[in-house]
Write a structure and sequence with these properties.
The chain has helices spanning about 10-20, 30-40, 60-65, 75-85, 125, 145-155, 185-190, 205-210; strands at about 45-50, 70-75, 90-95, 100-105, 110-115, 130-135, 155-170, 195-205, 220-225. The chain is of the alpha/beta class. It has one domain: Vaccinia Virus protein VP39 (Rossmann fold), CATH 3.40.50.150. A 9-stranded mixed sheet has the order 3-4-5-2-1-6-7-9-8, with helices on both faces. It starts with 8 loop residues before the first helix and ends with a strand.
């Protein structure tokens, strides 16, 4: 894991380069599998967004369900690793009006991964989204940026869209963030003014996380947000 409160893009680049990526899952996230049908509600060809997506297996799985997937990631390495590991042909082109920004697009056009500053990413690049899936992005950013992050995510959600959010609740103690604990009350505080926030479930994953860090308890909180 990383150590430090205010991490920069360079820290994340270094983490990917040296394999300091305990946050990356080697399979599709169980929360997504459990709740995706509820989000889709029988519809097809939806726009689905994953903020700070890394090289998540969720990207390909969602595209394989018949939807269009957009991800944003600061670092180039996980994006190129994703396409290589998933054996997906893709092209890379510069982003218009985004200094150093690049968009990596699968040959079939179903997956677009934007390599850029998340806070500068707007609906002008790929529209708004029917579904947003945040598996561990809010908990990873610097605490000072949480409000800005929440506002950015909601600005990308369609008025009738659904935002599935996975956060953590744990006793931080001497544990050096990220991730940060974001219990359900914190989710309500961040999003409650603009969204109806529904608690879906809380899962005890202490045993899994004790393999990585020294903590007493570690719970995953799953919330569903829809704009008011």
């Amino acid at each position: 894991m990383f150590s430090g409160e205010n991490l920069t893009i360079e820290h994340w680049d270094e983490g990917w380069a040296v394999g300091r990526t305990a946050f990356h899952k080697s399979e599709v996230h169980s929360t997504l599998l459990k709740h995706f049908s509820k989000l889709v509600d029988g519809r097809s060809d939806l726009n689905v967004f994953l903020p700070l997506c890394g090289k998540s297996h969720d990207l390909k799985w969602i595209a394989d369900q018949g939807h269009r997937v957009v991800g944003v990631e600061f670092s180039e390495l996980p994006i190129r690793s994703f396409f290589s590991e998933q054996k997906i042909e893709y092209t890379t082109t510069p982003m218009e009006d985004m200094p150093n920004g690049m968009v990596h697009t699968s040959k079939d056009g179903k997956i677009k991964l934007f390599q850029c500053d998340f806070y500068s990413f707007t609906e002008e690049y790929a529209g708004k989204y029917d579904i947003i899936w945040d598996r561990a992005s809010l908990v990873a950013i610097n605490l000072a940026d949480q409000t800005k992050y929440a506002e950015k995510v909601i600005s990308l959600l369609k008025p009738d869209g659904a935002y599935l959010l996975n956060t953590f609740d744990f006793n931080q103690g001497t544990f050096q963030a990220p991730p940060h604990p974001v219990p359900f009350k914190a989710v309500q505080s961040l999003y409650g003014k603009t969204c109806n926030v529904e608690f879906l479930e809380e899962n005890d994953v202490t045993a899994e996380w004790k393999k990585i860090v020294c903590i007493e308890y570690f719970h995953e909180i799953v919330s569903l947000l829809k704009q008011k």
